[in-house]
Amino acid sequence: MVPYLATLDLSNNQIKGQIPDCWQSLNQLLFLDLSNNELSGNIPISMGNLFKLEALVLRNNKLTGELPSSLKNCTNLFMLDVGENKLSGPIPSWLGESMQQLIILNMQGNHFSEHFPIQLCYLRHIQLLNLSRNKLSKAIPACLKNFTIMSEKSINRTETQRLIYEYNTTTYWEIYGFFVSLAYSLDITWVWKGVEQEFRDPQLNLKSIDLSSNNFTGEIPKEVVCLVGLVSLNLSRNNLSGEIPSEIGNLSSLESLDLSRNDLHGRIPSSLSQLDFLGKLDLSYNSLSGRIPLGRHLQTFEGSSFEGNIDLCGEEINKSCPGENRTAKAEAATEKDEDDSDFFEALYMSMGVGFFVGFWGLLGPILIWKPWRIAYLSFLNKLYQLLV
Q: Phi, psi at residue 224, to the nearest 5°?
């Protein structure tokens, strides 16, 4: 191999067999992409000699075994993508202890087991974290709030670009004697709003956590509401219980929220209606109850977002809430009473007006005008004489 090679991209081929264990001779390598091939066997231990490596992409192969501990020597990694393989064992704690520059960590679609190591919470620069479709269990740790970048609404792109490109630009100068503005074009495959999409050379403005399709138990940690910059959160298809955090409305940047197919109970927090950017919502197949909150655009989501919650009610799922019929009857009775009251009030008013007009129309002139009064008394006197 070429000892001064800085970028090696063999992705999207049909390379078969095991990855050769001879990476100690490529200690200047910055970017290694072997994704979308048919590679099998273990990840070679000698990859731990790639001390300057910044991006390691082994996605979509048939790799097996555990992550070799030698990889903890790759302390400059900002991207590690081993998704869609057959890797197993626990997620090693040294990922968080040694690779604190990580911005992208994708381990989806493997056989990783045991718990979510709290050491991953040391990844303060992390923006894309995907551990979905594994065999992880126990509780989701509360230390997720330590994801510093996700706790900020905006992204310092200057800092992000520095983390990614400044070091490798310097290294390219050391190797080749000239600077390059962009050494490697990132190609990220990510599930976004339920659809797998490719982001080619993204500006890294995505902030996402995907822990779906595991065996996580316990409650959704309330500390997750501190991640105000989070754009996508997927905790679906686990065994989570308890209630949805009442302050989930604090996640004002959220565009996609999937908590479906768990055992969550209680009411849907009214604060959810405050998420103006929310474009995808799935709370289906839980044990939620009560009325779907009113307000803003929460009513724009289809019934499929709420189905499978037998005690949930609201217009979105065409199910009236308990007591609504009684309330409707009471309102109808009240309206009828009000109508009757209006009728009698009008009747009495018309009678009063009629009496007033009749009384003053006949007796008013007699009492006020003297000629009418004399004529009226004369008429009564003659009538009396006739009757007598």
A: -65, -25
For the domain spanning 7-241, the CATH number is 3.80.10.10
Alpha carbon 253 to its chain's center: 9
DSSP string computed for 37-68? SEEEEPPPGGGGG-TT--EEE--SSEEEEPPP
pLDDT in tens, 326-358: 444 444 444 445 555 555 566 556 665 555 555
Q: Identify the bridge partners of residue 87 per DSSP, sorted by sequence position.
A: 65
Beta strands 195-200 and 187-192: pairing type? antiparallel
User: Hey, which residues does 256 pair with through a beta bridge?
Assistant: 232, 280
- Are residues 100 and 121 in contact, defined by beta-carbon separation less than 8 angstroms? no
Per the structure block, which two tokens stand in for 345? 């009030």
* The model's pTM: 0.78
DSSP category for residue 164 = I
Q: Which residue has the tokens 């273990």?
A: 42
385: enclosing H helix or E strand: helix 370-387
What six digits make up the tokens of 28?
């200047």
245 vs 247: CA distance, rounded Å: 5
CA 130 to CA 116: how far, in whole Å? 12
